[in-house]
Design goal:
Blueprint: H1 3-6, E1 12-16, H2 21-34, H3 41-52, E2 58-60, E3 63-64, E4 67-70, E5 77-87, E6 97-106, H4 112-126, H5 129-137, H6 141-149
Parallel strand pairs: 1-5, 3-6, 4-6
Antiparallel strand pairs: 2-3, 5-6
Helix pairs in contact: 2-3
Length: about 150
């Protein structure tokens, strides 16, 4: 499984309205719920916070990669959000974030290797500063996906 296999315009939001981490996580989780990726939004959000308690998910460069590893996941995906506001988030560079890549993966052990492979692929692509700048100004959801596939 590769990023190109799981990127979906339905779970991308280029205009997240939230002003807090919690609001952003709920907005993206709602998108996942509406698209049929998860069966219980509140449980999914609780599971995100379990992972958040384990360590920092703000990777720097105004990007956060929280993980929703949960038994309520029906389909693997990555909800992508771009925030209208800078959001305070625990981050290695101590800067606020405005791009969020919310992993939606099953807590089933069979999916662990897929999760790590996808995370490595995403992190590699986000390590390119030019790509990150393009993500911050991309006009459409298709443009976002194209930046990861091409």
């Amino acid at each position: 499984m590769e990023l190109k296999d799981i990127l979906n315009e339905e779970i991308i939001d280029l205009n997240l309205k939230g002003t807090t981490k919690d609001e952003i996580l709920h907005e993206l989780s709602q998108r996942l719920f509406d698209a049929g990726y998860i069966s219980d939004m509140e449980q999914f959000v609780k599971d995100i916070y379990v992972r958040e308690a384990e360590g920092i998910t703000g990777m720097g460069n105004h990007i956060a990669i929280p993980h929703g590893k949960s038994s309520v996941v029906k389909k693997i995906g990555i909800a992508i959000g771009r925030c209208e506001n800078e959001i305070e988030w625990e981050s290695y560079d101590e800067q606020p974030i405005n791009l969020v890549f919310l992993f939606c993966v099953s807590d089933d052990a069979n999916f662990a290797s897929n999760h790590m492979k996808l995370l490595a692929e995403l992190a590699g692509k986000l390590g390119n500063d030019k790509r990150v700048e393009q993500l911050k100004i991309a006009a459409t959801k298709k443009d976002i996906i194209d930046l990861f596939i091409n």
